[in-house]
Each structure stands twice: as structure tokens, then as C-alpha cells.
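User: My advisor asked me to double-check a structure prediction for 7TM receptor with intracellular metal dependent phosphohydrolase before group meeting. I don't want to rely on an old file, so could you generate it fresh from this sequence?
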Amino acid sequence: MGRFRFFLERTKTVRFVRFWLFLLLAVLLFAVLYWQVKPRQYELRLFDVAKETIRSPVTVEDKEATAKLKEEAAAKVADVYTLKKEYAENRVDLLSSLFAAIESVQREAEPDRPLGDMIAKLEERLPPEWLAYLSAAEWQRLLAASPEELKTAKEAALTAVHAVMSERISQAELDTARAEAAKELEYAALSPPLREAVAKLCRQAVIPNVVYDRAATEEKRRQAMDEVKPVKILQGQVIVEEGQFITNDVYRRLELVGLLESGRPSWTAAGLLVFVLLLLAPLIYYFRTETTNEKLSLYTAIFALMMTTMALIRLLPSSGAVSIGYLVPAAFGPMLVRILLGERLAMMTTIIGAVCGSLLFNEEIGTAGAVSVSLIVYFLAGGLAGTFCLPKELAKANIWRAGVFVAAVNIVSLFSLLLLKNGRYSPTEIGLLVLMAAASGVFSAILTIGLLPVLEAAFGILSPLRLIELSNPNHPLLRKLLTEAPGTYHHSIMVANLAEAACEAIGADGLLARVACYYHDIGKTKRPRYFIENQIGGNPHDHLSPQLSKNIIIAHVADGVALLRKHRLPKEIIDIAEQHHGTTLLKYFYHKAREQTEFVLEAEFRYPGPKPQTKEAAVINIADSVEAAVRSLSNPSQEKIEKIVRSIIADRLQDNQLNECDITLKELELVARSLCETLNGVFHSRIEYPEVRKEKVKHA
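Assistant: Sure, here is a fresh prediction for 7TM receptor with intracellular metal dependent phosphohydrolase from the sequence you gave:
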């Protein structure tokens, strides 16, 4: 119950610290990016003179200008008039009725009746407005015409009016249409006075036959307005040039794009906050299974260094088309993460750094709040090149080679982007860009090499590069082991070979296992002659009591740990040196003591431990015993080797030596196979050569 409560409290602490670390990352990202995406505002008034050229930071629609253009387009649309064909029929019917009235008056009139009486009779049958079409004299001419003349006049008038009114006649075209109707009568077989009266009657009969169509007119105006494209102020568009007056229109557009200090709240901060949370979401998911915060703390430090470097370079001035962003050593952050925390996290760092860098150094359109696709591609190419170019066996020379490779990839990606843009750059600008791309790769290597030992010391991280350095035979402790305990040195090398292969077989850290094996028996240098691999001649234990011999043998663990701590070796190596025997029993001296007296406690002849806590420590625990046991065989064979390996593993399991590490039975089977393969390669059978007799050669 107590252990469970401790676990819960520890978990709460881990989550609490993790929350603050992520909060620190979020604040750092927000602070670095805010000054780039923050909308710039100007304190300007009408009719001021612009002190600099001002561009739009966003693309927005100028609704007022769009509405004005739509009004102008609608005003240009002419009114729509519809042709009424029935008007022609109506006017033809009117003339027919008029001539019919004249004919009826003529038929009813008595012979030699005065025309005045006939006109009076006609007035009774025609509306007053019709009578106004002609004068009294003209009506008399019509009434005085013979039936044949009247029939001819009627047909000519109806034909003329119908022909003219079949076409569109507007109010403006009325006079022309009436003249055309009168002209149609020129070839009629009528006397001139009668033709003149009929022509006047036709002119009166012709009226406009088109009417205003309000619905059609509004529809055409709506279509004209819809065809007007919205007026937009484009991102990067110049609103006012330096030295120009701030007119009403300019002031309105400045206010529209948010460049005037209006006191209104800005949503940029909220947008940036969401953006930062989206960037951190993959990291939160990645670190969700971590039980400690050491890795997250280290990652936070590396990311802070990367963003700080970008922010400092952002302060440098840019020149024309050459962005200072191409100088950013974007690969050093991913390279450090790759070395210290792994490849997968390094790829995530590359992507996040590329997005942040492109936002921070965006200068292609002279505005903030947008990302540069060119810089994203550039940063991604360099970061991924640095991540994948680092080999498994790290060394400073390899980091330098990775930096050169990053520089080459930067230059290639830069040229590809310049060609895609189809831009025109001067030789000076191209040379400067290439120089910055090369410097970016070199600076990445310099920062990686320089910061690596600082981070290792600050966070107690054991990197592959540090392990490579510790494996150097010229290290003082390894030189001491070689000169003072050569047998132990050889034993450590053999155990290292066995442990490295076995660890790699189960996915553990083979390099850590190898280097830890070099130092695991360093405590034997204090009394080298008391360990069998260093003995030449007699064995000093033959003259000591089992208890004293046991104390000397067991002491090499504590002596080694003290020596390793004195030389400030990494904690991982010290832990393995302390755990490589676990709490195993010194069987030889225990049984020897039992032969001398029956009252011997087994616990007194066991190593103090602790038991192996990691897979690497467990593998070294097994490999150490296996190497010593196989070396003691006079004629090792594959069967004997396999039997010893499996018996030692079984003994460790029965003795509960592997209970405190997370190694599985399946992995132990892989360890056994790996140890057998390696030992069979070392102790393989050899051909026995016949003895060559030496004969004296006589010279003539």
C-alpha cells in the first residue's frame, strides 16, 4: 500500500512538472513569434504626410469601393422597354373604325346634302379626340371622296400604319415613325389633297409601341452588379507611398486593414496561441508515456536554444531580396535531439522548427503573420539532412561531416527554390545566398559540438558521442586497467563484445553495454593479484581464510564505484559497475568456508547489490559470468558453451537476480543465442599442424 501511494505521488509530481515544462515551451514560442505576427499600427491623421511606404498586412475586400463600382455598373444599364404588338392591331382597328364611320355617313347622306351636315353626322359617331386628328376641311375631303377613293385610302392607311408599328417605336423615335408612315402613302392612287388628309390621319394613328419594363430593367441591373468583381486590398499591396498625403480614401483603407490605432481588440494573439498549441500537440503526445521529466527538460532546453538563436538572427538586417533567414543554423537543434533523444523526436523538431522559422523570417511579401513556403522547404531539407546524416557511431568528425552535408543540401535546395521562383538575382545576391546556406550547415555543426558537452553535464545525459570518447583506450582509467591488471583488461574486452551483441539482439543500448563493460571491473586495479585472470604463478587466496578472500573479492565493486565517481564518469556506467554482480553468491569461498565450519551464513558471501535495474546491466551480469566460465574450459565446444550459457541464465533466474529489471524470457532466449554465437566465433576449433622438424641446411 505504501509503495502504491508513493507511485501515485510520484506520478502526480511528474505530471505537474511536465505541465510547467510544456507551459514554458508554449510561452517561449508565443513570445518569439508574437513580435513577428503582431499587427503593426500607425498613429496617422487625415492629410498627414506618410513617413514611409505602408503595405497591407492582410487581404481584405474593400466593400465600400465594391459597392460604388456596382452602383456605377447599374447606372450604365439602359432602361428596358418591351414591344407591345397588340398596339399595332389596336391602331389598325382604330383606323378601320374611323373609315367605317365615314363610309356609313356617306351611305346615309342624301344626294346634294351639304358637307357640313355630314360632318355633324360624323361628329355624332366619332369620339372627340378622333375628330381632333384632322381639321374640318380635311374631314370634308374624306367625306367628299368617292367610295373607290375611300376604299383605296383605307387600304393604304391600314397598310402603312401596320407596317410602321410592326417595328419598335419609342417616344424618341415617334416623329421618324410618323414620317415613315406618311411616306408609305406616296405611291397610293390618291389625289394630293386626299393623300395629305390620309397621311395626317396615319401620322396621328402611329403611337409608341414599347413600354418600360421595370422587372427586366432591375434584372439587367442586378446582373451588371453581379458581374462586378469585389475590390480587394491584397496582402503586400502598397496603400500609401512615402511622402504622399493621407487622403480620405487612403485613411479609410488603412483603417480597413487594421493599420490605424483604433483601440479595437486584436485577435492575432488568440490565433497565435492556437497555432502554438497545435505545434506542441505532437510533443505532448510523444512525451505522454514518459515516467520521468529528464528527457522533456532536456528537450525544452534544446528547443529554447534553437528558438533563441532564430530570434537573435532575426535582429540582423536583411538586404533586398536576400533574407537573413537562410543564415539560420536550422539543423543544430534536430542534430542535438537526434544525438541525445532519438531520431523520431528529431524529425518532429525539424518540422516544428521549419514552421516557426518560416513564420519568423517571412519577408517575401513584406508582411507579418504569413509563412514562407520557400523557407519551410529550406529548413526542412537542412534539418532532415542533419538528422539522417549522423551515423550510429558518433564522433566529432562525423558531426563535422554532417555539417558539411547539411551545407551541401542547403545549397542544392536553395538553387532549386530560386529556379522554381524564376526570379532574377544578381551574381552578388546569389553569392551571398550560397554563402549563407553554407554557413548555416557549418554553424549547425559548431553549435552541436559546442553545446553537446554542456547539455550532457547540465542534464546528466550520456550521449553516444560521450560513450565513444569514454571507449578510447587512452582514457586514464583504461590505461590504468591495461597496465596494472592486463588480464582483467582482456576479460573486460571479451565481456564487452559479448554484451554489445546481446544487447543489440534485444534492442537495448549496445554501445552503452560495451563501454560499461570496459569499466565494470576497474575496482580490481586496487588488488589485481587477487583475481585469477591476473595471476601468474601462485594464488594468494591459498593462504587466506575464505572470509578474508570473500571480502577482497566483493570489495572490487565498491572500489570500482569509488574510482569511477572520482573520475566523474556518467551515472549509467557507475550504476552498471555497481550492479554487474547483483547479489550473487561467491560459491567457491562459501563452500570452502562450509568445509571449515558449518555455521556460515549464505548472506555473508553474497555481493551487496543492488540487482540489475536495466536490460544492459542484466546482460552484462550474465556475460561477465559466461566469459569467465567458458575461459576456464580446457577444450570448449559448441555443446559445452551452450550448456554453460543456459545454466548461468537459469541460475540467475532461480536466484531472482533479474527480478528488478524489465527483461523478458523471450529476450533472455535471444541473449543466450547471441552469447553462443559470439563465443563459438571466438573459441572455434582449429587445425592441428604437424610438427616441422628443423633441418640444417648445408651450404656448398
